Amino acid sequence: MFAAFAAPAFAQTGNAWPTKPVKLVVGYAAGGATDVIARLVANKMGEDLGQTVVVENRTGANSNVGAEVVARAPADGYTLYVFTIANTINASLYSKLGYQPVKDFEPIGLIAKIPNLLVVNPSLPVHSLPEYIKFAKETPMGITFASSGSGSSIHLSGEMFKMKTGLNMLHVPYRGSAPAVTDLLGGQVQSMFDNTPSAMPHVKSGKLRPIAITSRERSALLPNVPTVAESGFPGFEVQSWFGMAAPMGTSQPVIQRLNTALNKALSDGDIKQRLAAMVATPTPGTPDEMRKFVASEISAWNEVVKASGAKAE
Fold first, then answer.
1. Domain spans in the chain, listed from the N-terminal domain onward
2. Can you tell me which family this protein belongs to (predicted)?
3. Is residue 312 scored above 90 in pLDDT?
């Protein structure tokens, strides 16, 4: 788990913190879900803190580049990181990391969660999860599922489902979600546990058929699509998630100030509406709640990564 202690850093910043802009590092390119969500909360938090919160994209190695930058930054509250599900997967996926996902970060709080959506090409004679399972069992070659890359949350959602069901599911990795969806639309692959915002336009146009959603509850935007859990797999839940963290050693008063500003932003009506349009659920809470959640995610994904045999260097 994240270590939690009050460091003397606040003595250096004093009660006047922040006295200059705060940098929020995103480990992915501009325009993606992580970046969009970061900019939403950054703008609102800046209003509360009285200083601009500037989003900086530091891409590479499935967000590891950005994480390492922040892990090595001064623990003064002026450099923060958008901690995601990828960092808890990477803890098992990579044999060597330039940072430690737990020991190098102080949690500030969770931001939001986005479910994945099991979608199939409409040519597949499958309209429900039981039918999907039946098709996979009765087809000699099993069923194919695409992903945005080996070790991604999209890939491991499929691997977790494969673990739970024992189905013959062939993973077909791509370099990103866009080419994977393109081949799914074209029928080169049969299914995908895609991030819901990515899949939604194709579901609405009828080009992809939704089978089940991986959140604990159904989505208001897809009320007729059942959850995986209610379709015969109680407790099954996979969601991409986003949180905020600071370098280890950042003082607790600064962490608490940031947590208050973050939770205030997440209670804003406009932000709630914009997150809902992304099928994202705001997840306000405490640093300790994020600490416990991250620990549970690292443990869960360690089991799935081992079972899948996925590795990255």
1. 9-114+241-308, 115-231
2. Belongs to the UPF0065 (bug) family.
3. no
In the 8-state DSSP scheme, what is residue 23?
E
DSSP state letters, 188-252:
SS-EEEEEHHHHHHHHHTTSSEEEEE-SSS-BTTBTTS-BTGGGT-TT---EEEEEEEEETT--H
Task: Give SS3 for 125.
Answer: coil
Rounded to the nearest 5°, which phi and psi values hold at 67?
-65, -40
Strand partners, 110: 243
| Residue-level pLDDT at 264 | 98
Residue 180 buriedness (CB in 10 A; 0-12 / 13-18 / 19+): buried
Residue 311 pLDDT grade (very low, low, confident, very high; cuts 50, 70, 90): confident
The one-letter amino acid at 112: A
- Helix %, strand %, coil % for the chain, to 5? 40, 20, 35
Query: Looking at the DSSP assignment, which residues form a beta bridge with residue 195?
Result: 116
Please, which pLDDT band fits residue 15 given cuts at 50, 70 and 90? low
Model pLDDT, residue 2: 52
Residue 268's identity, in one-letter code, is D
CA nearest to 307, candidates 83, 44, 87, 92: 92
215-to-53, 238, 239, 280, 282 alpha-carbon distances in Å: 30, 6, 6, 10, 13
9-114+241-308 adopts what CATH topology? D-Maltodextrin-Binding Protein; domain 2 (3.40.190)
Supply the DSSP symbol for 9.
Answer: H
